[in-house]
Each structure stands twice: as C-alpha cells, then as structure tokens.
Design goal:
Shape: globular
Strand order of the largest sheet: 7-8-9-10-11-1-2-3-4-5-6-12
Distance between the termini: 93 Å
Largest sheet: 12 strands, mixed
Structural class: alpha+beta
Number of domains: 2
Number of strands: 18
Helix content: 25-40%
Strand content: 25-35%
C-alpha cells in the first residue's frame, strides 16, 4: 500500500512539473522591437530618477594638420566626465540637479548645476559664487529692453513646454520607434555595465543606428513638426517666423525649408556624411522593463575642406539609473555666496579698463571672465621678464594656451624695439610694426587695455582682446596680448 502511494505521488509530481514547464515554454518571449517599445512605455510612467554617469571623448587628427586648427580644437582632444544627476517631476517642468567633474586634457574642474522650476543655479571653478539665473526676471528685462519680438511670459512659456513634452514629443518618439526594425536591434542575455568602478550584469537590448535609420529619424522629425498643431501655435505665438499665418502657410514654410536644404546639400552627399557616423545605444533593463543602465558609443569622421584635415572623434558614456524618489538638495543661497547673472554681465556691449596696479573693484563692469585673462597676462608678463630666447617665450605661450579654461585664439608679445612673437606662429607683412597697433599704444597709455568685442573675419566668432605692458626695473620693455573667443 505504501509503495503504491509513493509511485502515485511521484507520477503527480512529474505531471505538475511537466505542466509548469509547458506554461513557461508557452509564455511569450518579447522580440527586440517589442522590448524597445515596452521600455519606452515604462519610461513614460517615471516621475523621478537619479543616475551616476561617466563618459569620455577623444579626438585624433589624421594626416598633416594646420597648427591653428589643432590649437582651436585641441581642447577637445581628451575629455573625461563623471558625476551624478537627479530629476523629480513637479507642477512646473521639474526639478533637476547635476554635479560632475570635467577633465579636459588633464585639467580638472568640478561643476554644479541646479534647476528649481524657475531658476538655474551654476557653480563653476572660475566664478567666485553661485551664479543665479532667474528666468522670470531675465524675461522681464528682455521685455523692458524690447529685445524679444513679442512679450515673454514665463508661466506661458512653461505651459508651452509642457504641451511639447506631453503631446508633441510622445508622438515623435512613437513614430521614431516604429522606424526601428529587428535588423537594427539585438537582444543580449547578459551585458556588463561599469560605472564608478562598479560592474553590473543585466539583460539588455542593443540599438545600432545606421544611415537609413538616422535619415528616417530626421524625416520623421520634419514631418511631425510640420503636422503638429502644438509646434505651429508656438511658432506663431512667439513670432519665430513672421510669414506664418494659417496652418497651411506654416506647412508650406516647412516644405520650402526642406526644399532649400535638399538644394544646398543633395541627398547622396548627406548619406555619405551620415555613413561616417557610427552610433550604438545599449539599454539594460530589469524584470519590470525599467531601464537600469544605458551605454552610448559614437564614432564620427569629419573631413571638411574648411577644417583642412580629417578628424576622427569618439564619444562614450555609461549611466546607472535609480528610481528611488529623493528630494533634491538645493544649495542654500546667501548674499555672500551667490550673485545674479545680471551682476556678472551688467553690460555685454563693452568693457571698461583700469590702470595697471589699480584695484579690480574699480574696473566697471565687473566681469570675472575678463579678470581671469588679466590675471593670466600678469603671470605671463612676469615670466617674460626672465626670458630672452624666442623658443623659450613660445614654450611659455604654448603652456598657457594648453592650461587655459578658455579658447585662446592668439598670444603675442611685442618688444619696445618692434620685435614680434606670435603664437601660434603666423606670417606677418614685412612692414608690420606692432608698436603702431592700438593694442600696443593703448596698453602704453592704460597699463592694461581691454578692447571692444569684434567679429573675427575668418571664423565669424566674437573675440576679446586684452593687452598689458611689461615693466622691468621701472621701464616698459614691451607689451603682451591675448585674443580669446568669447562665444
């Protein structure tokens, strides 16, 4: 009797096991495309997240390179970034915080950024305080000075942004996801993400953005914007295009824009350019189809006649996501540790000057970016009093350009005898006498000369020139100057 009982139970156990296994086998396995769609659907339900991230960017010049081009782009040759971010949905756009460390060619700086729905708060190494950008206040100033084509109201802008994010962006994202086919996707049972030294293995889906897909995305963006009532109302409301009347006029304008684009750059040239871009996106996810990690890899080859050389650029970033809702801790602002953006840039139309040896507080308007360059010229001037050889001076210039936070266009030194050293090295006319140039003569008069902003003819960018006398044993032996891109 007992033996019969055991056999019966074994049979029951095997039957139950078979039924369970059959149920598991019948459970639908999501395809790669369905996985991407599910991940997107789950992302729409998120109202808070935080993330750790790290990334890098490198640039390689292929073949012979113009020294000036290499100098302009050299600051981007090796960049690393790491930090953390937080987002929390609110009634007004949302609160956001990001703290990160940026390393540019071995020069490291820590940066803080916060947004509380109406104010941006930035802490940057070159600035003495938190810089506060009060958006309603800034818009009010633009309205008073009639800088904007229409009256700008912050609450109205917030509502328009919410309409874009709640109506236009979901439609656009949905259309773009439709374009992604199974050939562009790959399901990965295991993929290891590493952030901040911590490695985590997760299920993942890999998205390869090829040329056809990227062109399709651009066309989808165009079509969705063209047919969007929300975008039309924003264009009309803010007078972005003064020729827009009816919705049909707006759509016709989009068609004209596309036609002019196709005329300036034919499709084959555009496709050829896109072939030089390789973009891979890997999404790790949990059992609830929430993204827990993201990895992005981009490789781009640039071969432009205006640059004069071929450049290969690579970028990568990894994010570790967390969905525990936490309050964002904003910095406590006081009169001592913060200042308004209007205090930092009271008037961008021109800059003052101050006598050599004068108090920086007498320099009006106060501009800390300019002050940094003046301080750098002070250091360079001190170094130049100890040097006599041209090669030594060029090496000093090169080291200051390399270490500068800002994009330096030129550094130059003219002696009282009329000799000129310019970095990067450039040919000057035979009859060029630096002592007759305004940057030299004004520096002799003022001690330190801060010039008017001007537009560089070659690059089309705005440049600030600063020059300073070099004094040795009470006698002016020359003038050192710097040109900085400020845009």
């Amino acid at each position: 009797m007992k033996r019969h009982f055991k056999v019966r139970h074994v049979f029951s156990f095997v039957l139950i096991l078979a039924l369970v296994m059959a149920g598991v086998a019948c459970q639908k396995q999501l395809s790669a495309k369905e996985t991407v769609e599910r991940l997107y659907e789950e992302s729409l339900n998120l109202d808070a997240y935080s993330a750790k991230f790290e990334g890098d960017m490198s640039m390689e010049f292929i073949g012979e390179t113009d020294p000036m081009i290499e100098q302009y782009l050299g600051m981007f040759k090796n960049i690393k970034m790491s930090g953390d971010m937080q987002y929390k949905d609110t009634d007004r756009i949302g609160d956001y915080a990001m703290n990160y460390t940026l390393d540019m060619n071995g020069m490291s700086m820590a940066i803080e950024f916060y947004f509380d729905g109406s104010r941006m708060i930035v802490n940057y190494p070159l600035l003495p305080n938190y810089i506060v950008i009060d958006l309603p206040e800034l818009l009010g100033m633009l309205n008073e000075e009639q800088e904007a084509p229409v009256e700008l109201d912050y609450e109205s802008i917030v509502q328009d942004l919410e309409a874009l994010t709640s109506e236009f962006m979901p439609k656009l994202s949905g259309e773009i996801i439709k374009l992604i086919d199974e050939n562009s996707l790959e399901l990965l049972d295991e993929y290891t993400f590493t952030v901040d030294g911590e490695s985590v293995t997760s299920k993942a889906v890999k998205v390869n953005l090829d040329t056809d897909l990227m062109i399709g995305m651009m066309n989808s963006l165009f079509e969705q914007a063209k047919n969007s009532e929300v975008v039309y109302q924003i264009v009309k409301k803010y007078d972005i295009d003064d020729e827009v009347g009816s919705f049909e006029d707006y759509q016709a304008g989009f068609d004209g824009l596309k036609a002019s684009f196709e005329e300036e750059m034919n499709l084959s040239e555009f496709e050829e350019m896109m072939k030089n871009i390789s973009y891979t996106y890997i999404l790790g996810y949990d059992k609830n189809y929430r993204v827990n990690h993201m990895a992005l890899d981009l490789t781009m080859k640039i071969d432009d006649e205006s640059i004069g050389t071929e450049i290969e650029m690579t970028m990568g970033a990894v994010y570790a996501m967390n969905y525990d809702a936490k309050e964002i801790e904003f910095p406590e602002l006081t009169d001592e540790n913060s200042m308004s953006i209007m205090e930092l840039f009271p008037d961008l139309s021109g800059y003052g000057s101050y006598e050599d040896g004068g108090d920086y507080e007498d320099y009006v308007p106060v501009n800390y970016f300019i002050e940094e360059q003046v301080l750098m010229l002070d250091d360079i001037a001190q170094d130049l009093t100890l040097l006599t050889e041209t090669t030594e001076i060029e090496e000093v210039f090169e080291s200051y350009v390399y270490d500068s936070y800002f994009e330096v266009m030129n550094l130059y030194y003219a002696t009282s005898e009329g000799e000129m050293i310019l970095y990067p090295n450039q040919e000057l006319p035979d009859n060029y006498d630096p002592r007759e140039r305004p940057w030299y003569t004004e520096a002799l008069l003022q001690g330190t000369m801060i010039g008017e902003l001007y537009e560089d003819a070659a690059s089309g960018r705005f440049v600030q020139s600063i020059s300073k006398t070099i004094v040795l044993d009470g006698e002016v032996i020359g003038v050192v100057g710097i040109d900085i891109f400020v845009d």
